[in-house]
Q: What sequence folds into this?
């Protein structure tokens, strides 16, 4: 997409201690592989999201290093074991140095 | 309506034409322009990261038998692991045998992950094997793979 | 050969072709002439994606592609829809108005997407959703209209159309719309380009057969705008028309051109009764 990449996240608002919950994430991004030629016949420079990080209350749940073989609008889903209430933080690192972040809160059930 | 039935009828010749439309090379648009990696490149890559002696068990690579388009192929990797402080998958390396470069994505998991499972979408330049190596916290490695056929569209620019 | 899975002998298909000399009234009675001479029963579980002889492209998609469409989070088109949701209530233009200022919540658009394209008596021409939205921008908001294939217009068109998701496509071809309908039908059936093929040859006659590795659908419009895996983005129906024209090495017409507007009406009407799926996911 032409405008600033937009992250989207689907994480549970509430969960019980001990649950394993699934978190789905995606961001609008071309993931320009650097291997494609433009209309002028020249290679279009690579620009991808090269790294993704998911934290909960500051602790890392998982991270990923991405390469040009990852699809446009990169989608990643993964799991977390619930220990406490708190806040997720998701970070996407762009080749151009930008970092896009998104946060989401989760409460413990009864 | 001025045309005759005759003129719009589909002929054997039409059908042959349709069959030949869009002789597009298999090669996901996003990745064209470079020679493809070979299975050996993936083996070399896994060796570099310390997974060349991986045991062919515990790792399931799940994806479509046939991908309609190589640009967006959903893949799910599951490793049989309790994912506790003492016994967990630390890293999952994913590589493709037929893309321009072997590396696809590397996941670092933690005991906080609860289970060792990740899902993502990747580009496939051609029919090929997607391979994964899981490295445990004790350094032991396991591996699995999946062959995915890629068909690519002829119509539409 | 490339043509695997031919379901019926060619001769049979030839014998059942649409005669273009048939008057509209008569032709519209027998939908099979506009859809497919060999429409198969919808596969089990996918009955909702069929209506009479009409079959949504969803039925022709693989399970993986359908799964991408089924979940509003996994469907990549929602990256555009979510932006459009913000846009809906963002004032713009010299009138400093947003869509919300005049229309209230976007839910008020329920049903609207099912009846477009539609003849607009005020301007005396056919409008599709894209053109209708851009009219609101230029007239109502006094803002610059969005470019046809822009992320903004694609996102907003999807947002408006998805308020009618699951509702049957129900475009009218009566009254002043009839002229457009006939023009569109003619275009659909006219051989063009170096390959000398018409839309109908692939989407009516060869529907259900393979073109190389591609299973030919009926070329229905109920899913548009669509996130195409090949495009790696959301795209308009007219972009698809251009792609199909290009493939048979025929002239690509301009997005929003009178020809494509008329074609949109005919193509959408062929799918009257199919559920609105926008934004869909296709290969």
A:
């Amino acid at each position: 997409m032409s405008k600033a990449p937009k992250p989207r996240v689907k994480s549970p608002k509430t969960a019980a201690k001990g649950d394993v919950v699934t978190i789905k994430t995606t961001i609008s991004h071309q993931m320009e592989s650097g291997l494609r030629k433009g209309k002028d016949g020249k290679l279009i420079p690579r620009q991808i999201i090269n790294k993704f990080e998911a934290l909960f209350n500051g602790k890392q749940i998982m991270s990923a290093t991405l390469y040009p073989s990852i699809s446009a609008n990169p989608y990643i889903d993964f799991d977390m074991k619930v220990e406490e209430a708190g806040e997720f933080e998701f970070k996407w690192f762009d080749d151009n140095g930008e970092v896009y972040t998104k946060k989401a809160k989760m409460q413990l059930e009864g | 309506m001025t045309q005759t039935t005759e003129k719009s009828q589909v002929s054997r010749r039409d059908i042959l034409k349709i069959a030949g439309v869009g002789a597009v090379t298999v090669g996901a648009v996003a990745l064209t322009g470079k020679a493809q990696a070979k299975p050996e490149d993936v083996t070399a890559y896994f060796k570099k990261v310390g997974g060349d002696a991986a045991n062919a068990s515990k790792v399931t690579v799940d994806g479509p038998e046939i991908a309609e388009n190589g640009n967006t192929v959903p893949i799910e990797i599951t490793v049989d692991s309790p994912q506790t402080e003492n016994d967990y998958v630390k890293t999952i390396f994913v590589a493709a045998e037929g893309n321009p470069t072997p590396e696809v994505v590397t996941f670092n998991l933690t005991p906080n992950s609860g289970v060792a499972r990740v899902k993502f979408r990747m580009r496939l330049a051609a029919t090929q094997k997607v391979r994964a190596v899981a490295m445990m916290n004790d350094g032991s490695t396991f591996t699995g793979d999946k062959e995915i056929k890629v068909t690519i569209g002829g119509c539409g620019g | 050969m490339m043509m695997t899975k031919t379901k019926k002998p060619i001769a049979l298909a030839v014998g059942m072709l649409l005669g273009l000399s048939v008057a509209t009234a008569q032709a519209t009675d027998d939908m099979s002439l506009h859809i497919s001479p060999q429409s198969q029963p919808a596969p089990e579980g996918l009955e909702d994606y069929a209506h009479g002889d009409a079959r949504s492209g969803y039925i022709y998609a693989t399970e993986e592609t359908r799964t991408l469409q089924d979940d509003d989070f996994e469907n990549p088109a929602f990256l555009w829809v979510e932006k459009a949701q913000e846009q809906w209530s963002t004032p713009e233009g010299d009138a400093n108005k947003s869509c919300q200022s005049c229309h209230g919540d976007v839910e008020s658009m329920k049903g609207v997407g099912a009846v477009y394209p539609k003849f607009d008596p005020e301007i005396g021409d056919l409008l599709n959703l894209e053109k209708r939205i851009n009219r609101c921008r230029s007239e109502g908001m006094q803002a610059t209209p969005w470019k046809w294939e822009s992320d903004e217009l694609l996102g907003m068109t999807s947002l408006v159309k998805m308020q009618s998701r699951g509702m049957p496509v129900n475009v009218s071809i009566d009254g002043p719309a009839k002229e457009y309908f006939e023009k569109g039908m003619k275009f659909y059936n006219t051989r063009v380009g170096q390959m000398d093929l018409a839309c109908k040859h692939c989407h009516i006659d060869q529907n259900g057969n393979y073109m190389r590795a591609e299973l030919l659908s009926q070329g229905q419009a109920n899913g548009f705008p669509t996130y195409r895996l090949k495009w790696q983005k959301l795209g308009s129906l007219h972009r698809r028309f251009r792609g199909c024209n290009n493939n048979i090495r025929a002239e690509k017409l301009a997005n929003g051109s009178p020809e494509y507007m008329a074609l949109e009406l005919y193509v959408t009407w062929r799918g009257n009764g199919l559920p609105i799926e926008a934004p869909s996911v296709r290969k």
